[in-house]
Amino acid sequence: MSEELSITTAETAAFELVQRQAKMLASSTLIPKEFQGNMSNCAIGLNIAKRLGADPFMVLQNIDVIHGRPSFRATFLIAMVNASGRFSPLKFKLGGEAVDRTCYAYATDKASGETVEGPVVSMAMAKAEGWSTKSGSKWLSMPEVMLRYRSAAFFARLYAPDITLGMQTAEEVEDIAPERNVTPARVPEVKGLFAPVETLQSVPAIVLLRIKLEEAGIREDVATEYLRSQAVTEALIFDDITDDEAAAALTAFSHLVAALAPVAP
After folding, report:
1. Which of the residues 43, 49, 65, 165 could staple to 59 if both were Cys, CB 3.0 to 4.6 A apart?
2. Are residues 128 and 202 in the same domain?
3. pLDDT tens across 223-251, in order?
């Protein structure tokens, strides 16, 4: 019984320590904005740092939150592989030219002395996967760097999954994420918080949610934070809320109004 009590006491002390550390980090202006003022995010960052045996500040500086999901920077993964002590410093083998350019990462496994090679990444792969066809793609402006970054990510995921923790790199997430249509949509005229259903059938849920929030006098950022707290969405900004998530929010819109109307400007 005393042993169980001792374990519980130790766990409580550890949790309280994380809270204090997270509070300190959240008050800093030197960490990324996704962590500033957010103790929960900082606590998760501390947990990741503990798992990796890395400095918390370094970890927070190298996590990018894209579309609500955390991702490591490729340079951070390269540094972690090199610092793991399991491999010689990561190197890259380039081949081909121009559109036929290829690259793979390799290193020596210190335990066996064998050379381990990661999957080959090529410009043909970048085109086939749609990485290089996106507007503003860095695969077109700096292909040599992107080939190394992607091959390093593949190597780390294959030979050191305990370092990647199942997370993708920021560069991968940006390549995979669909391009947003920034052309302003024509917003149909829908009057009243409870407009007739037949009037709303052709209106996208996200558009309708924006209209209803405006009529209720509720700011979009306030509504987004509330929907995150209710596990309706993981989006950090209103524009990243999906249509399905918006539809879910509309089904309980009266609750949203009741909760947020008092704090609306």
Report:
1. 49
2. no
3. 888 888 877 888 888 888 888 888 888 87
